[in-house]
């Protein structure tokens, strides 16, 4: 098991401006990572009449929905495939993009410079020279101005072992290794993703390169990306193989979250991603059975198992294990969304049945009749009387948006995980914080209890802000040791009904900075 981090919730050019789509329609999706065009974007994609998606202009919406952004630098050009002009022109553009980002001192969620997109098909070797040389030259130009923001690449159209080996050998020799490894999973389908990840990891080891996070920042072909069960197959592979993040490909107009919305309203796939976005606690291991595959999570605090599956026709059964503590019988609500694709709005999932089923040796077997292979299905499993609380009250730090800090494990932590290394306070590129997206049923004052560890031997402080409001200071008295969580501090917050963003920060824009150090296990939000 590993913490729920919604690795495949995100998109390429999914957001076109600060209000399209609205943050409110995106928040239920728990979006993690986006790839957006650079400041000054000139690219006109998929029927657009004006450039859209400038990373700095959409930053407020991305932050409000819990996400971060890679900036795709070559989309400063108006054409695709890109039309190379000259090295002077390109480096001038690179310098301007970096300068614009550095001037945006309140924008914290830029976590990667993508030097080039699909160099195996769009790099002009005749005019620009070998791509590996171009990578090195551009990498050094970025680092001359920005020594902090990760650099990602190579961003090939497919996983190509020969291209990747040549790229990595050059990058290692020139001290320009990317911080995040990127390629696309499009025409090759989902079936080979596990083999690609394994091959890449073996290549790293053979070259003596430390493991890099893997980003698949474009996934699924046009006939797959907006079919709920097909997109689910990709998500299942990404969760299974441990990639860092993955983004839906840009086949539809900007501002639709890559087809999850049509005319501003949800499609069937939106609801499948919402089921994914509602996962909390730990991801459960899933074993596929032929074409039937899925994803699952277990929120041990509320006693909810959330299972999303699909891909097969006919009558099937799904077995869910690790239900110890749920009782001798469980309530199972089975729902579905149609395989209707891109241009059909769907107002909500369809509830197929509500059953009480026996738990045998910690497992429940769920019959599912008349399955449609294009549809996706959800089995929501709780004790017979429902979850332990009417709404989620405990939020694990390792499930939250973690910026310039690290997810770590400890048997003392409430879900086995916590966030440490919340140490940075220098500027918007290195400031450290954790953003919790909490959903409460009504507006009012809530008690906020923060479970923490502070091994400094003295009181430490962090900043607390919610929904972009004013900062207050949280003080953490010393505890026994790092990674040991038996202490909490409590304060109050005034929340609106629905989604709220709560930030705990060592450093953040408009905050002077915390003192000392503290680790965060979880927060509890109660009326």
TrEMBL record:
Q: Which Gene3D superfamilies match?
A: Galactose-binding domain-like, Glycosidases
Q: Name one Pfam family in it.
A: CBM_35
Top-level taxon of origin: Bacteria
Where in the numbering of this chain does the CBM6 domain appear?
393-526
Protein name per Swiss-Prot or TrEMBL: Carbohydrate-binding protein
Organism of origin is Labedella gwakjiensis
The beginning of the lineage is: Bacteria, Bacillati, Actinomycetota, Actinomycetes, Micrococcales
């Amino acid at each position: 098991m590993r913490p729920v981090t919604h690795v495949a919730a995100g998109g390429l050019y999914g957001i076109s401006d600060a209000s399209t789509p609205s943050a409110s329609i995106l928040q239920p999706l728990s979006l993690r990572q986006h790839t957006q065009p650079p400041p000054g974007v000139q690219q006109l994609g998929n029927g657009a009449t004006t450039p859209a998606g400038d990373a700095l202009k959409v930053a407020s919406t991305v932050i409000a929905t819990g996400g971060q952004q890679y900036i795709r630098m070559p989309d400063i050009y108006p054409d695709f495939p890109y039309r190379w002009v000259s090295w002077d022109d390109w480096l001038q553009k690179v310098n301007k993009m970096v300068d614009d980002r550095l001037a945006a001192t309140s924008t914290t969620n830029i976590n990667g410079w993508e030097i080039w997109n699909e160099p195996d098909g769009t790099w002009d070797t005749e005019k620009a020279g070998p791509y590996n040389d171009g990578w090195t030259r551009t990498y050094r130009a970025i680092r001359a101005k920005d020594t902090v923001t990760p650099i990602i690449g190579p961003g090939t159209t497919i996983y190509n072992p020969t291209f990747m080996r040549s790229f990595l050998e050059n990058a290692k020799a020139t001290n320009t290794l990317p911080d995040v490894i990127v390629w696309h999973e499009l025409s090759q389908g989902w079936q080979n993703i596990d083999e690609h990840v394994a091959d890449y990891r073996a290549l790293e080891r053979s070259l003596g390169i430390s493991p890099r996070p893997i980003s698949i920042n474009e996934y699924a072909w046009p006939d797959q990306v907006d079919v709920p069960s097909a997109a689910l197959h990709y998500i299942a592979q990404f969760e299974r193989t441990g990639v860092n993040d993955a983004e839906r490909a840009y086949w539809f107009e900007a501002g639709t979250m890559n087809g999850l919305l049509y005319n501003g309203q949800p499609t069937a796939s939106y609801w499948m991603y919402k089921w994914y976005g509602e996962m909390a606690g730990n991801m459960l291991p899933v074993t596929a059975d032929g074409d039937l595959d899925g994803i699952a999570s277990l929120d041990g605090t509320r006693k909810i198992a959330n299972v999303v599956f699909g891909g097969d026709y006919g009558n099937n059964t799904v077995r869910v294990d690790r239900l110890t503590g749920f009782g001798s019988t469980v309530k199972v609500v089975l729902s579905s969304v149609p395989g209707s694709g891109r241009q059909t709005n769907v107002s909500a999932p369809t509830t197929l049945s509500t059953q009480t089923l026996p738990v045998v040796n910690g497992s429940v077997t769920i019959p599912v009749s008349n399955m449609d292979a294009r549809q996706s299905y959800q089995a929501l499993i709780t004790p017979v009387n429902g979850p332990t609380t009417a709404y989620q009250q405990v939020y694990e730090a390792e499930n939250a948006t973690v910026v310039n800090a690290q997810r770590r494990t400890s048997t003392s932590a409430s879900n086995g995980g916590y966030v440490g290394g919340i140490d940075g306070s220098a500027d918007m590129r290195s400031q450290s914080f954790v953003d919790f997206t909490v959903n409460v049923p009504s507006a009012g004052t809530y008690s906020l209890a923060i479970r923490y560890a502070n091994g400094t031997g003295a009181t430490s402080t962090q900043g607390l802000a919610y929904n972009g409001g004013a900062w207050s200071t949280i003080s953490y008295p010393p505890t026994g040791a790092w990674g040991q969580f038996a202490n909490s501090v409590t304060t109050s917050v005034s929340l609106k009904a629905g989604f709220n963003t709560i930030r705990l920060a060592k450093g953040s824009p408009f905050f002077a900075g915390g003192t000392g150090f503290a680790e965060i296990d979880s927060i509890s939000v109660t009326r």
